[in-house]
Amino acid sequence: MAERAEKTIYFAPMGCTTGFYVIFGGDSSSEDNIRVLIQAADYDLRYDHHTLVQGYSPRHCGNYLHNHLTFEKMYMKQCREEDLDNPIQDRLRYPIQRVPEVHAK
Asked: What distance, in Å, lies between the first and last C-alpha atoms of the chain?
């Protein structure tokens, strides 16, 4: 994952608990990006329950009770198995849309 860090242009949450955006620079393939997401999922699944979960207090997050490590690991495992381990090929590529040329008169 470290080799991808220099190509990471943007990484941020979509909202409080909906997911995140990640934008990589360069000419990486969807398969390359899936491998990075699998590494991130595996990191999360190995996260020790004795380690502090960021934002797990009412002072830091209004939805802090959503940051339950056991449940998050359960959802991450499901996401890894259903989406990352078995990606739907049609969803890995944007359709090419040609922009019509505009000719000045």
From this structure: 51
- What is the per-residue pLDDT for 105? 66
Torsion sign, CA atoms 66, 72, 74, 78: positive
- Please tell me whether residue 49 adopts helix, strand or coil conformation: coil
Question: What pLDDT, in 10s, does the model give residues 5-21?
Answer: 788 888 887 766 667 78
Phi and psi at 23, nearest 5°, equal -125, 125
Q: Which residues contact 36 (CB under 8 A, 6 or more apart)?
A: 1, 4, 24
- Calpha distance 2→18 (Å, rounded): 25
CA distances from residue 28 to 17, 31, 37, 59, 71 in whole angstroms, order as listed: 27, 8, 13, 39, 32
34-49: pLDDT as tens digits: 988 899 889 888 888 7
